[in-house]
């Protein structure tokens, strides 16, 4: 099966992907060409024209109601009306936070949501009194306000806003007036005197000590992921595989037992099967849907950890996170879900009952095929154990890489929405093609765990696996005939990628290992 299957990663980036486009209709700097050509003035700059705004979802109300002497009176009234434009831009940006994986809401539908909380014509007082975040009015924050105490998850109502603002908007450990988080390139940190060092050691002074133990830029990234995953703590590392190794090494004692699934990332399975036995650790492998085998393993052995992907690689099997967590917790086992193929936008493993969630941030989270990184999120108690081990063995995320992942996350929710939409259409197309034997995608009703995916995911991801009707060479020929996708490993970036796992991933792998995985 691995010989004739191909894994395809598709992403289309239409014009609405550009962040500024969400608010372009309300931007006073828009040119006439932006809204229909030189002979058609911009709809948003035509006072009194209700018909020109109906196609945007506005009925008879005109959002810009300028007084007759507006051109001559560049005073408080001018600023007042411009404040309406500012509010409109904020609301328009919030529309993009909707997480429908197939079709984004129309402008008219969005008007009934977030804009309903904002007066269409605001006076100077009302415009200054509140700022709208995703349809929720919040008091403006000032320098004297309780910024540090405000929880990002409580203030921002959507994953889109959290991916942009969490860890940055309401205080970070770097003193700067810049909107973007600076890169702190240092290997060590200094203390003013020995008393300050003593306070640091005893927890009375917050700082850093050595680059392997933490970095301010990386801390911002960790707080951003924690907000998205609703986690107490997050630890970032140099790669997803480094995160998996640290997790297994820190939480599973010598002589312990691990339960995992047949379909899983090959390198993680290879580490479990080749390295862990040297510590006396046994790995029990079950089918992702075989709940009875999980119960039997928990009853027979003192299982320390249940660790799997969902969706899995490369067949996108889905594990019922809530059910598995309940079973494992009844026997004292920790549950870790590798959510790389889902991303924090499509799936919240911790909220479903898992203790830990792991991501290869190289993929969807960073999203641009230009940086490596991995992270683990969960309770402070478990993350602290992993952090202590990581501080010893290293595998530290470079602060420059942390900055690039932070920047990539600004568009995470937009990219994942488009991934979801494009992949579903591609899966449906391939499933109907006469030269494709089978398609593996959790968004299809034909998928064996489609009912689980619908229950615990808001979107089904941007990767589609399928089997070509032919042999090894036929599949190679098919891949080589494609014009747009790159023949490359990895996924989750802006470029379309396709690969043949038998050649890309399993070429040097013994046949018995391939059969065990599949």
From TrEMBL:
It comes from the Eukaryota. Keywords: Transferase. Its EC number is 2.5.1.48. This is Cystathionine gamma-synthase protein. It comes from Dioscorea alata (Purple yam).
């Amino acid at each position: 099966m691995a010989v004739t299957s191909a894994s395809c990663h598709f992403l289309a980036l239409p014009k609405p992907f550009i962040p500024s486009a969400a608010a372009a209709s309300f931007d006073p700097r828009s040119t006439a060409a932006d809204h229909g050509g030189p002979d058609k003035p911009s709809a948003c700059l035509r006072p009194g024209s209700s018909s020109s705004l109906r196609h945007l979802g506005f009925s008879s109300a005109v959002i810009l109601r300028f007084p007759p002497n507006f051109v001559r009176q560049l005073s408080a009234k001018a600023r007042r009306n411009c404040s309406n434009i500012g509010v409109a831009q904020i609301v328009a940006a919030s529309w993009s936070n909707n997480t429908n994986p197939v079709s984004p809401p129309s402008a008219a539908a969005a008007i009934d949501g977030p804009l309903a909380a904002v007066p269409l014509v605001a006076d100077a007082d009302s415009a200054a009194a509140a700022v709208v975040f995703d349809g929720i009015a919040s008091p403006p924050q000032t320098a004297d306000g309780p910024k540090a105490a405000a929880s990002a998850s409580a203030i921002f109502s959507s994953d889109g806003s959290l991916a942009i603002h969490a860890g940055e908007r309401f205080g970070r450990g770097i003193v700067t007036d810049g909107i973007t988080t600076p890169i702190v390139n240092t290997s060590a940190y200094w203390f003013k005197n020995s008393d300050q060092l003593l306070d640091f050691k005893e927890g009375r002074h917050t700082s850093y000590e050595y680059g392997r133990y933490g970095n301010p830029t990386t801390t911002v990234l960790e707080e951003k992921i924690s907000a998205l995953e609703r986690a107490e703590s997050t630890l970032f590392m140099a790669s997803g595989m480094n995160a998996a190794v640290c997790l297994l090494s820190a939480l599973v004692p010598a002589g312990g037992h691990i339960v995992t699934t047949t379909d899983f990332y090959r390198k993680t399975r290879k580490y479990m099967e080749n390295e862990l036995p040297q510590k006396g650790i046994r790995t029990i492998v079950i089918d992702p849907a075989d709940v009875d085998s999980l119960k039997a393993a928990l009853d027979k052995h003192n299982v320390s950890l249940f660790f799997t992907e969902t969706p899995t690689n490369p067949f996108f099997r889905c594990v019922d996170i809530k059910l598995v967590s309940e079973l494992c917790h009844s026997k004292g086992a920790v549950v870790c879900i590798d959510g790389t193929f889902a991303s924090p936008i499509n799936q919240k493993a911790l909220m479903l009952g898992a203790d830990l969630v792991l991501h290869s941030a190289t993929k969807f989270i960073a999203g641009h095929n230009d940086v490596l990184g991995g992270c683990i999120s969960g309770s402070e108690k478990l993350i602290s154990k992993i952090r202590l081990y990581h501080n010893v063995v290293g595998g530290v995320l470079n602060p420059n890489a942390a900055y690039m992942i932070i920047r990539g996350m600004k568009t995470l929710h937009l990219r994942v929405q488009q991934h979801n939409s494009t992949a579903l259409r591609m899966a449906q197309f391939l499933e109907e093609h006469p030269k494709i034997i089978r398609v593996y995608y959790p968004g299809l009703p034909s998928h064996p765990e489609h009912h689980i995916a619908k229950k615990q995911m808001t979107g089904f991801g941007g990767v589609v696996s399928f089997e070509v009707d032919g042999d090894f060479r036929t599949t190679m020929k098919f891949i080589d005939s494609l014009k747009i996708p790159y023949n490359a490993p990895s996924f989750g970036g802006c470029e379309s990628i396709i690969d043949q796992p038998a050649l890309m991933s399993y070429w040097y792998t013994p046949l018995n290992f391939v059969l065990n995985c599949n």
